[in-house]
């Protein structure tokens, strides 16, 4: 067990300022760069092709856009099963892509890359209604999860003002989700099914870390009945520090390996999951140690001061 006690709650203003500054930066970058919404959410067409050898498909982006008369998103990848390369072209198209336009697009690519044997794999029109329904269901699931987390923590940790602990835990989770969202925006990743998968994974990962610290606080409150709220949090987070960092490093290392392999094989769909996961796990560990618990200290200190004023 780590016997050294760090004054984490005493530096809560520093932690809050750091997080607030980064969140403001994310907001500014989001306004400047905008948010890429995947076709599966806003509706449109996705066409997939295979090709052989090396080719920079994105060099043909302007010609494709001229042909289709709409902005397109090109994602390149590699089929690991047969070592062939592939790419997808996605774009918003209210009426869908006609057979003539699809044929013209295929011919354009084959003429642009004559030595790469470009072949059409499939073409799918995505209904925006189904995408919006999926997004709405994920949002409802996240809100419901947050409500259940508050209720669970409130009931389990009654001895340490469970409701405030639950609310602070959810604020910490929201903090993590903002950083995940910021990663998608900064890296230029589309908001798609991967985004929702990362969000739901980070929700579970982060709340577990926070609950471990709350459990320590509850135990230490029995062992240290005269200790202040700040002292309880400092001791509890210091005891949990090594475990939290070790768990995070192990998981992040795995995601780093996945990211390296995905980069080598140009599998952007995996990168858009692993990179935000790494950021989310770092933010989650930081929030559990430096946001949720210090915020709970601030909440209880304010409540204590308010109660003293009422008594006077």
Protein described:
With 312 residues, this protein is an alpha+beta fold. It folds into 2 domains: 44-126, ACT domain (Alpha-Beta Plaits, 2-Layer Sandwich); 130-306, Multidrug efflux transporter AcrB transmembrane fold (Up-down Bundle). The protein has 9 helices and 4 strands. It has helices at 12-33, 39-42, 61-68, 99-112, 128-156, 162-187, 193-223, 229-264, 268-311, and strands at 44-51, 73-79, 84-91, 119-126. Strands 2-3-1-4 form a 4-stranded antiparallel β-sheet. α7 (193-223) runs antiparallel to α8 and α7 (193-223) packs parallel to α9 (268-311). The model has no long low-confidence stretch (mean pLDDT 86).
Break the fold down into its secondary structure elements and pairings:
Blueprint: H1 12-33, H2 39-42, E1 44-51, H3 61-68, E2 73-79, E3 84-91, H4 99-112, E4 119-126, H5 128-156, H6 162-187, H7 193-223, H8 229-264, H9 268-311
Antiparallel strand pairs: 1-3, 1-4, 2-3
Helix pairs in contact: 1-6, 3-4, 5-6, 5-7, 6-7, 6-9, 7-8, 7-9, 8-9
CATH topology of the largest domain: Multidrug efflux transporter AcrB transmembrane fold
Report Rg.
Answer: 25 Å
The number of distinct structural domains comes to 2
The H/E string reads HHEHEEHEHHHHH
Calculate the mean pLDDT score and round it. 86
| Low-pLDDT ranges | none
Q: Can you give the helix content as a percent range?
A: 55-70%
- Major sheet: arrangement of strands: 2-3-1-4
End-to-end CA span: 43 Å
CATH hierarchy, class of the largest domain: Mainly Alpha
The count of strands amounts to: 4
Strand content: 5-15%
Structural category: alpha+beta
CATH superfamily of the largest domain: Multidrug efflux transporter AcrB transmembrane domain
Shape: elongated
CATH architecture of the largest domain: Up-down Bundle
Instruction: Specify the biggest β-sheet.
Output: 4 strands, antiparallel
* DSSP helical segment count: 9
């Amino acid at each position: 067990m780590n016997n050294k006690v760090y004054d984490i709650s005493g530096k809560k203003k520093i932690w809050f300022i750091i997080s607030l500054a980064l969140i403001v930066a994310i907001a500014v970058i989001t306004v400047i760069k905008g948010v890429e919404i995947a076709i599966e959410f806003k509706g449109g067409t996705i066409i997939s092709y295979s090709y052989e050898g090396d080719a920079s498909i994105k060099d043909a982006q302007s010609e494709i856009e001229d042909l289709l008369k709409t902005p397109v998103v090109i994602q390149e990848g590699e089929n690991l099963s047969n070592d062939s390369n592939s790419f997808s072209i996605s774009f918003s198209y209210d009426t869908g892509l006609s057979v003539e336009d699809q044929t013209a697009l295929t011919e354009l690519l084959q003429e642009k890359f004559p030595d790469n044997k470009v072949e059409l794999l499939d073409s799918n029109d995505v209904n925006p209604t189904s995408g919006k329904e999926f997004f709405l269901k994920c949002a409802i699931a996240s809100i419901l999860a947050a409500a259940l987390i508050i209720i669970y923590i409130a009931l389990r940790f009654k001895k340490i003002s469970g409701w405030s602990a639950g609310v602070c835990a959810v604020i910490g989770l929201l903090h993590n989700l903002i950083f995940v969202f910021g990663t998608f925006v900064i890296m230029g990743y589309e908001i798609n099914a991967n985004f929702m998968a990362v969000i739901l994974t980070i929700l579970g990962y982060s709340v577990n870390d926070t609950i471990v610290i709350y459990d320590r606080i509850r135990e230490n409150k029995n062992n240290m009945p005269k200790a202040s709220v700040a002292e309880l949090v400092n001791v509890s987070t210091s005891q949990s520090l090594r475990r939290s960092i070790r768990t995070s490093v192990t998981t992040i290392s795995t995601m780093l390996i996945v990211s390296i392999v995905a980069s080598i094989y140009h599998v952007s769909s995996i990168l858009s999951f692993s990179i935000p996961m790494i950021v989310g796990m770092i933010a989650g560990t930081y929030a559990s140690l430096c946001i949720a618990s210090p915020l709970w200290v601030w909440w209880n200190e304010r409540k204590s001061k308010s109660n003293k004023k009422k008594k006077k």
